[in-house]
Amino acid sequence: SRRAALAAGRVRSPVAWAGSRSPLPAVAEMAATQADAAQGPPEDRKSGAKSGYTYWKRDIGDAHVLPDCTPKKLDADNGEAAKVAEAEPPKASAVGSRWNAAGTWEEKDMSGPARAELERILSDTGFALLEGEGTKVVVSKAEVSGDSQAYNIRGRPRLGFEFKVKCSWTGTFEGEEVSGDINIPELDSSDLDGFEVKATGKGGDASKKAADALKKGAMPAIKRAAEMLSNNMLQA
């Protein structure tokens, strides 16, 4: 019988016959299929046109749509400029840093420089607290304390401060020599119209009159000094 023949080895089973087939024909067929695909469509092969599927090939029919990656030699001038640009350290303005190109929130302490700048503005000989016919009162000495911060908010710089200002003043008032002191307990950048000027005179009645006039008359000058401070610090 067939079963006995199989057991004797005279007849091979279909499974054993299939397993004994050599894989070489299948491999050769696959290689031929891949070679045909690499050569492109049949019409291109007939016309002799070159084709391919790798991005670095530039001898195909649609090569014009690919970016040019041909190496280019750098000029000597450009090379030197690049070296100089790399050697230069990043520059930062008074508020915004070079890294913050997007202009997001940035905060910087400016207390020391801002106090010194306001003292300089108030003590300038050309800056008058009170001026009129026969009257000119200037600051002889200024002392500023407090904190200041510079902000960069969405690309817009702003200076904030909360200062206490003490000044010694001198000059002439209605033709008479006068002197005294000024105290500003709170000079706040968020309310430059709401600060208080406390003035006292030294000596006679003329200085006392001048002090009374300074309580209101010096406010525009102090506000102007605060605005000059902001402009100077943000443009530094």
Explain what the structure shows.
With 236 residues, the protein is α+β, with helices and mostly antiparallel strands. The chain is built from eight helices and six strands. Strands 1, 2, 3, 4, 5 and 6 form a six-stranded antiparallel sheet that branches. The longest helix has 16 residues. It is rod-shaped and about 115 Å long.
Described by the principal axes of the CA atoms, the overall outline is: rod-shaped
How many beta strands in the DSSP annotation? Answer: 6
The average pLDDT value, as a whole number, equals 77
- Our estimate of the beta-strand percent is 25-35%
Q: Structural class of the helix and strand makeup? A: alpha+beta
Give the biggest beta sheet: 6 strands, antiparallel
Sum up the structure in keywords:
alpha+beta, 6 strands, rod-shaped, six-stranded antiparallel beta sheet
How are the SSEs placed, and which strands pair?
Layout: H1 2-8, H2 14-19, H3 24-38, H4 42-47, H5 76-87, E1 106-109, H6 111-123, E2 128-132, E3 135-153, E4 156-173, E5 176-188, E6 198-201, H7 205-217, H8 219-234
Antiparallel strand pairs: 1-3, 2-3, 3-4, 4-5, 5-6
Task: Give me a quick take on this structure.
37% of the residues lie in helices and 27% in strands.
